[in-house]
Amino acid sequence: MTHPAPDRTPWPDAGRAHSRLIVVCHGQTAHNAGRRLQGHSDTPLDEVGLTQARQLAAHLHARGVRAPRLHSSDLKRAAQTAGALQSVLGGAVTLHGALREIRMGDWEGQRLDDIQAADPDRHARFWGGDPACAAPGGETPDEVTDRVHGVLAALAPAPGETLVLVSHGIAITGLLCRLLGLDYARAFAAGTTLHGNTAYSVLTLDGLRVVGSSLARTDHLSPVPVGAGA
Predict the structure, then answer these.
(1) Rounded to two decimals, what is the model's pTM?
(2) pLDDT digits 0-9 by tens, 184-213
(3) Residues involved in catalysis
(4) CA 207 to CA 161: how far, in whole Å?
């Protein structure tokens, strides 16, 4: 899978009256490159993923991001991405188990093609965007959305503040759908909120109300093949 054409449009203006939320998907892992599902599996970034994270850090620094509040999933691939951002942007990183990717249960570590062959009906429902469908022993998109949105609500970014959340593909899709009032199934099927590795979204918030957004940007990346961000 490759990223769409980079979005080089300006970021939505935040100003002093609103806060800025930057939602980041972790960099590539060997599982991403091999089309294996990760879920809660604690896989580290590969060399491509480390490069992607450094590219994003330099890009955000060039955009003027300094010492943001950095909060990340505690899984290695997200924590390493957050660490690369912190080393350039400053600030401190706080890790949260509640920002993890959707739990994939029995599907974790398996290749997508093998899951489709073994369980075609459930595969079709899940990847068709059914928010109530879970992998065997896993979570539903509705459940992961609730816990990730709960973290954001607890962090409550203040006017003039920049908050960076580093998370995972399906977790990010659920969060953005909740914030933007999008139907999860439609957005998932259309790829509206799809974040490949180190893709990021910028939102201007008034409390938790979105007043401006630019979604799934990849303007920091070189045109190299990448995996899905789950």
Answers:
(1) 0.93
(2) 999 999 999 999 999 999 999 999 999 999
(3) 26, 101
(4) 11
